[in-house]
Amino acid sequence: MSCFAKAKKIVVKVGTSTLTHGTGLINIRRLERFVKTLADLKNSGRDIILVSSGAIGVGVGKLGLSQRPQDTPSKQAAAAVGQCELMYLYDKLFSEYNHAVAQVLLTRDVVELPQRKENCVNTFRRLLEMGVIPVVNENDTVAVEEIEFGDNDTLSAMVAVLAEADALVIMSDIDGLYDGDPRKNPEAKLIPEVDEVTGETLALAGGVGSSRGTGGMVTKLHAAQIACPAGVEMAIVNGSDPEILYRLLDGEPVGTCFHGKERKA
User: CA Rg, the chain, in Å?
Assistant: First the structure.
């Protein structure tokens, strides 16, 4: 894990299940601790890019819906409401530590079309040069199947590659990758390091991790398949205690580390 101690530019992805209570409403105490930790890491000289899920989940809670919508217009409406709430909270909380944030909403075509990709890369670079913390999410309000990432694990990996980050940290509701399902098998063991994501590795992944999110372990492994070949170190850690980021970036063995390939000079 010493590679994380050297990381200067870090993408941190946080999921809906980490940000919210079972009601769908924001877990205020955890969010405050999370922002405080990121602000402190920023103060230490690191560049931070935050990929934050939660727009639809927060919108569902704010609108008082009993469950996550299934039809596209309702999902997009919930995202529009929830994204406002998320950015309001991030702006308010980071401002308390004198850090500015910027909203960056992406769809897949932005990173697939060369000119738009270049514009995106330049925007990230300039925001970091200005000392700003980009807060990235998929543009759920307009995204349709043809231009959506589908999950923010994939989005965070693509952002890490675009930004030439040193590390990607995916904060989940599980400690990392196990050799079995720890929710069903108490004997399942955490896998501390993965050199390469193989078919055997993918077979260890289960389904969707939470009713409030869209991801699961399989999307996190797919993220590793995007980030690691580009030279980005990736870790999956439990986001229930945001201060685990200190331990990871101090080089402690926490979660599961996926090793990035050596970058070409």
Answer: 17
Backbone phi and psi for residue 67, each to the nearest 5 degrees, phi listed first: -155, 165
Neighbours of 155 (CB within 10 A): 26
Cα distance between residue 226 and residue 154, in whole Å: 8
pLDDT of res. 155: 93
Q: Residues 208-232: pLDDT tens digits?
A: 444 334 447 889 999 999 999 999 9
Task: Please report the DSSP string for the chain in residue order.
Answer: -HHHHT--EEEEEE-HHHHB-TTSSB-HHHHHHHHHHHHHHHHTT-EEEEEE--HHHHHHHHHT-SS---SHHHHHHHHHHHHHHHHHHHHHHHHTTT--EEEEEE-HHHHHSHHHHHHHHHHHHHHHHTT-EEEEEE-TTT--GGG--SSHHHHHHHHHHHTT-SEEEEEESSSS-BSS-TTT-TT--B--EESS--HHHHTT--SBS-TT-S-BHHHHHHHHHHHGGGT-EEEEEETTSTTHHHHHHTT---SEEEPPPPPP-
Mean pLDDT by 10 residues, the chain (265 residues): 87 91 84 97 98 88 86 88 93 98 90 87 97 92 58 93 96 90 85 91 66 64 95 95 96 94 66
